[in-house]
Design brief:
Blueprint (H helix, E strand, L loop, with lengths): L26 H17 L9 E2 L2 E2 L2 H10 L3 H7 L6
Amino acid sequence: MGAEKDAGGARAPLAYSELPEERPPWADIRDRFLERITEVQDAQETPLRKIPVVNHRELDLLVLYVFTMRRGGAKKVRRTTRYFSR
């Protein structure tokens, strides 16, 4: 099992059938995180109706949260992030 190299030496992408069937170990953490976000948003009367989509993919809110916290939290990220306009 695994991606094999093609004639050019590049790795071929995994076939869907090669993906593991079990849930990843962090799936329960993500589920609890999303439940908590939903509770907080409902309490603030700003319900999370659906997961945001960026570039046709659902945004992983747990990853966004972890990266934001590692950079010092939302206020620091907003204060230090530079936005470029075209």
